[in-house]
Design brief:
heterodimer, A: 274 residues, 4-stranded antiparallel beta sheet, 22% helix, B: 77% helix, 0% strand
Chain lengths: 274, 179
């Protein structure tokens, strides 16, 4: 066999192949570190291990899922805390005026009814059976309290607040009150209620005994016509049905506008009278 | 955890096991020969070869239908070695310097040949191993290395030239082994 020339030719390729083949033969003749049965055993063991590991992973995922569900259910069953409103950006939504019509009945025992003209009234709702989602407060489980703020000097601007206290199970007030006024003889006093949408409203969750407040504002200078003076304010809770009566002796008569804020958990100011 | 075990590979029937055992006995040495230059350590090459045969057994019902099941094993083994080489190359080179030197029970000429292979640039060495020791055609080598066939041919040419120089320096090797 001749010495390979410096340039690579077919002879060199043959020489390289021959050297590599000789090397392969030499390694092939070495004793194997393990038999085929050992390799198969190892392979089968690993497959079993892998299957077990996959099973364990599936079980762990399942357990984690169950824990997540259990925690979610437990959190849902916790008594909800009253919502604390935080100041948010004011909306550009313009107030939607609502009219409370004068009741047609002049019977002294008849009560004026408040209705919302701007939206379809939601269907009558009762507190849901499950405590997980408190529903809107029905009027039947609320008591009303009205008061005015101290009016300053000769201003014609008047401020008042209507508070609704929950006497039943936890429920939610979300939005603006429906309002109407009744005179001592039971006849209705026409008022137009404007939602005060300067601040976004949030649902107020009322546990038993808690009170939510809506700030009212009106201007006595607008007053025209005869003025019997109201004795009773009838409040329709948002999303609920029925009315809550509160004593409200305010000199408000004629076709009046009242601005009403959304219900919030804090009393806006000390109340003078009811 | 690599891919799911092939459900067709089970249950192993004794005939398949016998078939696999004889296949392993006939081809394992060649797989080790292919892996030795890639790992630079005979024990590592034997470990990797067993690993590749483990995987082969898990798909044996499919592989036994192949004309050359050893081609599949060699490809898998080469990928294992090259991936390991890429991932742990630095660490392995470092550890290799601290591992007790085990003289492989083959002739010094063969050890020198492996050393010459390992002195080649990695791409060249991978190409030479895949083509001349794993018996992959040039197109398959190009596929494994992710380069074109022409680039593979160039790598092989460089490898052959370097090995020819190595053999020219050791004339006894060819005379002894080809006799």
């Amino acid at each position: 066999v001749s010495q390979p020339p410096p340039d690579l030719g077919p002879a060199d390729e043959r020489g390289v192949r021959a050297a590599l083949d000789a090397y392969r033969r030499a390694v092939r003749e070495l004793p194997l570190p393990a038999g085929g049965a050992a390799v198969r055993d190892r392979s089968d063991r690993r497959r079993r291990t892998r299957r077990l590991r996959r099973l364990a992973t599936a079980a762990a995922v399942l357990v984690a899922l169950l824990i997540t569900v259990a925690v979610a259910v437990a959190v849902d069953h916790r008594p909800p805390r009253p919502a604390v409103p935080s100041p948010g950006p004011s909306t550009s939504r313009s107030p939607a005026p609502r009219h409370s019509p004068v009741p047609g009945s002049a019977s002294p025992s008849a009560r004026p009814s408040a209705s919302r003209g701007d939206a379809a009234a939601p269907p009558p709702s009762t507190p849901p059976a499950t405590p997980t989602e408190p529903g809107p407060c029905p009027a039947a489980q609320l008591t009303g309290r009205f008061g005015t703020a101290a009016s300053g000097g000769g201003s014609s601007q008047r401020y008042g607040a209507i508070g609704l206290t929950n006497a039943g199970p936890t429920c939610v007030l979300d939005g603006y009150p429906g309002l109407s006024l009744a005179a001592a003889d039971g006849s209705g006093i026409p008022v137009t209620v404007n939602d005060d949408t300067a601040e976004p409203h949030r649902p107020v969750t009322l546990p038993a005994g808690a009170t939510a407040w809506s700030t009212l504002h009106w201007d006595v200078a607008q007053q025209t016509g005869p003025c019997p003076g109201s004795t009773t304010m009838l409040v329709t809770p948002p999303g609920g049905t029925g009315q809550v009566a509160a004593d409200a002796h305010i000199g408000l008569c004629g076709d009046h506008e009242i601005g009403a804020g959304a219900f919030q958990p804090d009393q806006p100011f000390p109340l003078m009278s009811s | 955890v690599t891919g799911a075990p092939d459900p067709t590979a089970e249950p192993p029937v004794p005939a398949a096991a016998r078939e696999f055992d004889s296949f392993y006995a006939a081809t394992c040495g060649d797989v080790v020969a292919m892996l030795y230059p890639l790992t630079g350590n005979l024990a590592d090459a034997q470990d990797l070869a067993q690993e590749a045969f483990c995987r082969a057994w898990q798909r044996w019902s499919v592989l036994s239908g192949y004309d050359e099941p050893v081609g599949w094993v060699k490809r898998v083994a080469a990928r294992l070695a090259i991936d390991t080489f890429r991932r742990w190359g630095t660490a392995r080179r470092f550890l290799a310097g601290h591992r007790p030197e085990v003289v492989p029970p083959i002739s010094t000429d063969h050890v020198a040949l492996v050393a010459a292979l390992r002195r080649l640039p990695h791409r060249v060495m991978h190409a030479v191993v895949l083509h001349y020791l794993a018996d992959l055609p040039v197109a398959a080598v190009a596929d494994e290395l992710g380069v074109t066939a022409n680039a593979t041919k160039l790598l092989l040419l460089r490898g052959r030239r370097a090995l020819a120089e190595h053999l020219a320096d050791r004339p006894t090797e060819r005379g002894g082994d080809l006799a």
